[in-house]
Amino acid sequence: xxxxxxxxxxxxxLAQKILIGCGLFGGxxxxxMAVLDQQGVVVPRALLALAAIAAIGVCGWVTVIYWRNxxxxxxxxxKFAWFWGGSGGLLLALPILAMLDTPKLEALFGxxxxxxxxxxxxxxxxxxxxxxxxxxxWAGWWLIRRR
Length: 147
Description:
Blueprint: H1 2-38, H2 45-69, H3 72-91, H4 94-98, H5 103-109, H6 115-145
Helix pairs in contact: 1-2, 3-6
């Protein structure tokens, strides 16, 4: 029994290290992109695309390792939070759809502009809403079940 607890504890520690490592990696990439942008360095789109594909592959591999090392309660919390929180976050964007052909949308976000900016704003806006909903529901899951 003691060996099982030790193995489980080691797996949880590995899962936590993976999460911390992913956060640090994302922060470093973001900081590097900001420094390059401030210096006026333009990274070719093909290189950015290849780096994004490589990062997605590595993140997928790391996610599988994390998922195999986390316990069942944490898995259920993630699934519940992503389904309800992520879906709820998407619902928060619905009022914007009602304003698509109205002057209120331009008043809210500004008139004209680069179409690429609007696409990025939309994609990352939805992602941010989903992650915010996920985080709130995930925290609620654990607060309700704390001992």
